[in-house]
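User: I'm curious whether this sequence folds into something compact or stays loose and floppy. Could you predict its structure so I can see for myself?
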Amino acid sequence: MLFGVLWALWHLPSSLSFDHDSLTQIGPSFLLSCLNCIAFGTFLAFIYLKTHNIWLAILIHFCNNNLPLMLPQADTWIQATASTLIQLAIFLPFLFSNVFRRAPSP
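Assistant: Here's the prediction. I'll summarize afterward.
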């Protein structure tokens, strides 16, 4: 979870550049970014631990980054919140998989 928060901090300048009013709403924006980064990071960790293939995780990250370019954009807090809840519902359950409960192999 710490890496999700750090990664949200890393992405904060780019998320602020899209919305001029976001400086007044930095708290909710950062919270949504943290939740998104934690959920998606969990999924990418699952992919890597399951396949031991970093390129698959990179390809999935690339697709995730470019998917918004193909979808219609509507910058509203309702859409951002809905997107975050959907990502949490899809990606966070992977945290409870067996791959995270195993002892790491040397």
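Summary: The chain has one domain: 2-101. The two ends are 23 Å apart (CA to CA).
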